[in-house]
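Build the 3D complex.
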Amino acid sequence: MPIDAAQAMAQEIPPLTVAVERGRLAFFAKATGQDDPIYSDVAAAKAAGHPDLPVPPTFFFSLELEQSDPFAWITSLGVDLRTILHGEQSFTYHAMAYAGDELVLQPRIVDVTSKKGGALELVTKKTTITRGDDLIAEARTVLIAQNKGVS
Amino acid sequence: MTALTNVEVGTELPPLVLEPITRTTLALFAGASGDHNPIHIDLDVARSAGLDDVFAHGMLSMAYLARLVTNWVPQERIRSLRTRFVAITPVNAKPTCTGKVVAVDGDEATVELAVTLQDGTTTLTGEAVVALV
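Done.
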């Protein structure tokens, strides 16, 4: 089913407020084989000059998933989650974030592009991540929905 | 904080050679990353979508690329990190992350990044911009 681009981009996705937890960061470090102790050991992080465990570069993507139905923004467009591929991901960094921070993530769909006669639809979402008035990072995600049977 | 010296176009980052990605790796990453899409962890769901098997999360490989970069410079020096996911990473693949400086502009360097598997398949390409001082 083709995605209604106008509807997608008009969609108001509610902002998400997340508290960054030490345990989550330590688990992420374990799951990604991160052996630098500043990402899992508070004492090591502090010895390296950080106030707490740093949020690692790609974890902002995970913070956005900290909700009961994290893929609602894409499934609400009629997309079957099983058909999705992650096409591109980028982050621009403005300041470090740490365990104990409360961050606000505000996503918005900024583009929907149909390719190969509708067999592929590329959905681009941009998310700003802030702490109070400070911009921490911006994330850009391109998901590719594969419409089988369209060729 | 110390400045990186002798960084020039062509400088290669020490590669990051990973262990093979097992189903356990994927289960742990699903939990730790919050990406519970069953296509990465549930063989039945993968088969229902016409696939032979589950495959790794793209963000797992991107996390490895981030490790490559933070092994080279402190994280606060990373200005941006971008990747394209160009091929699926199958279960039991053994990724290696590489990076090479392709531009130095003042105090910033642009590093071209890639993840390749043992059979030569490139799964991710990308770029990081880092501050050298």
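Chain B has a mean pLDDT of 95.
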